[in-house]
Amino acid sequence: MKEFVLERKNDWEYYHVPGLTDAGIIHGFFTRRSPVSPLKGREAEVFLDTFSLSDAIALNQEHGTDIHVIGNGDRPSRGDGILLYKRGIAGVINTADCLCVILVDPGFPMVSILHAGWRGTLKGITSRAVGMMTERGAATQRMLALMGPSIRGCCYEVGREVADAFLDAGFPGDILTSVNGSLHLDLKTANAHLVHEAGIGSICDTGLCTYCGGDDFVSYRRGARNARQMNFVAIKER
Ligand SMILES: [Zn+2]
Q1: Average pLDDT rounded to a whole number, residues 115-122
Q2: Rounded to two decimals, what is the model's pTM?
Q3: What is the set of domains in the chain, with CATH numbers?
Q4: For residue 190, how far is its CA from the centre of ligand 1 (angstroms)?
């Protein structure tokens, strides 16, 4: 149920957990060989057709903690999280080293998708999303968290002030490692801490580093200034 596989459908190459997709939670962490949101014209049509969706919502991301609950016809423009319980609508987050976290209660069903770079992680966007989901009826014992490809502890050098900000905020020391005298931060471990603290025991991790993981992903730190890759989640239409 929890293993990621790489799949291709039409223009789209993506990692997903087939058991979760089969359970009606459509999701994907796309590689750089796929189109990137904002999708326009024919590309948008192909995306919606390929994944049997009626609509897709993307945001201008700001490294904050604003999470939008999507109801009928809502079109938020800015923010870093999307919470969905309406079927057939995709929440989209673009990344290039930042971590995309997808939270799922398959039994409700309810999902959210989050942009978690170091700033959003430090401000607790993942904890905030769990709280917003449980307030609306999701149950942490049923929930699982998917961790997308991101820059990982192997490659993500940070300054002392960033490291100290995490420790001061109560994050455990194991989110940081010392590599040749410099400090490295692991966004996945930091978000796993937030997820566990919020009461979710189940995490599916792609285990992929965008920086050193080969040619599948764009990496901001490796020089991709404007390029991004797309990630999405949606609840399947009945
Ligand atoms: Zn790496």
Answers
A1: 98
A2: 0.97
A3: 5-235 (3.60.140.10)
A4: 16
